[in-house]
Amino acid sequence: MLINEMLPSRYLKQEDVDGEVVVTVTGLKKINIAHDDQAPQMKWVLKFEEFAKPFVANPTNLKRLFKALGDNTDDWIGGKIILFVDENVEYAGNITGGLRLKALSPAKRPNKKVAVTGSNGETFENDIPFE
Question: Against a cut of 0.85, is the pTM above it?
């Protein structure tokens, strides 16, 4: 039996993620993540469609979410972002690894064809790049 099976976590952790995973945000709320015998510890938690366990978002990951999905958290629902394990995450002065979020690469948009009507009433298509 693996240690993760003996001591399961209620929240998503690096052992739950294999490689880079595109995830879809389905919920966000602030909850108490402290154990019953500890003082309350309120943290923002995200729910992803692709995982059963919720993800506790630290300040670094929240900043990445704001940059990738915008200022209004209502707009995050349905948004997609990449979840991955970063081996270089530090905690309490030690390199422990941890989960990180990053934006999807911008999609290359093809040139759009636009119908243009000239002054003589003739209609033709013109390639206009929208960047």
Answer: no
